[in-house]
Design brief:
Length: 284
């Protein structure tokens, strides 16, 4: 993965506006050894405390909007790639603020849920391409999953640049923008669904007499092993499940209980609610 980026791309000077949970995960990937990105990366946060926590000598310059109202404009000046990592409802104000300081040819990547590329493009001068991306927090470990879609004026090269960027932190799927909200529902938010499962499994294990530490080890190693098996196996998930579920065995009994609330419609409803929220954020 990294090898092909090194062969094909030298990522340009990069700025990130807003570097919290998601931006921080991307930043970890971008500053990992072997990534051919022009350093330092300039990042901005709202608070000085967050900026201090992000600054790394030689590789990350961090500016805070609360102490320097011109921080975002300063960060994007001279950058060829700008990542917008602020909350959806702040995107348009941030773009209005930085628009005049973006050089022609800059690629602007927004990871914001719901906010359309068209609404960002409307605030930009000609010559700035927008790419929407929907990453997830395992990007922190280089195990991310990101969907990307080019806006109206994004060229194949602009999309390739965004693809290279997110390849540094995991797998990338190119989709149409109409699919980005569904990507958010599946893989963007997906880690939270698994963490919810982990919370409940750990609590249930504790109620059966394990210590918190024991329960966490049991659950996290089971999730890690199962996810790795899923990723490496040619078998479908249903077959992997059957491999665990001995006829008339113990798993079968538990799955009968779990399937009492049919998971198909449940997941359909959960993903539909997720997409509906993205649609609400479009107007943010
Ligand atoms: N979290 C996730 O798993 C995912 C999030 N996203 C998207 O990523 C975006 C960020 O979400 P998330 O990382 O969770 O949010 P966070 O609240 O963790 O991070 C937001 C960041 O924006 C900074 N910020 C706020 N206002 C400004 C400003 N005016 N100028 C510069 N920086 C500012 C914050 O600074 P400070 O720390 O000082 O408050 C913080 O660093 C959202 O649009 C979300 O839809 C997409 C996919 C997955
Ligand atoms: O919850 C959110 O809005 C963001 C988008 C996908 C994951 N987190």
């Amino acid at each position: 993965m990294t090898e092909s980026i090194e062969q094909e791309f030298q990522l340009p000077r990069t700025a990130m506006i807003g570097v919290g949970s998601m931006g921080g995960a991307i930043l970890s990937g971008l500053t990992a050894p072997g990534i051919r990105i022009a350093l330092p990366i300039t990042v901005t946060t709202q608070s000085a405390v967050s900026a201090q926590a992000r600054a790394v000598d030689g590789s990350v310059i961090a500016l805070a909007a609360e102490t320097d109202p011109a921080a975002n404009r300063a960060a994007v000046r001279g950058a060829g790639l700008v990542i917008l990592g602020v909350k959806p409802w702040l995107i348009h104000d941030v773009v209005r603020d930085i628009a005049g300081d973006l050089a022609p040819g800059t690629v602007l990547v927004s990871v914001a849920a719901g906010v359309t590329s068209a609404s960002i493009e409307a605030l930009l001068p000609a010559g700035i391409a927008v790419v929407r991306a929907m990453p997830n927090t395992p990007s922190h470990l280089g195990l991310g999953m990101t969907g990307i879609a080019g806006g109206a004026t994004a060229s194949a090269a602009d999309i390739a640049l965004a693809h290279a960027l997110f390849s540094t932190v995991g797998e990338v799927l190119e989709v149409t923008e109409s699919q980005i909200n569904d990507i958010a529902a599946v893989s963007g938010s997906g880690p939270a669904y698994l963490f919810l499962y982990a919370e409940h499994m750990i609590d249930a294990a504790v109620r059966r007499g394990f210590t918190e530490d024991q329960a966490r080890l049991l659950v996290q190693q089971t999730l890690l092993g199962s996810a790795t098996l899923l990723a490496r196996s040619d078998d479908a998930p249903a077959q992997l499940r059957r491999n665990v579920t001995s006829p008339k065995g113990t798993t079968e009994r538990a799955i009968e209980v779990l399937q009492g609330d049919d998971w198909g419609p449940l997941f359909d409803r959960a993903l539909a609610a997720n997409v509906q929220r993205s649609e609400e954020l479009e107007g943010a």
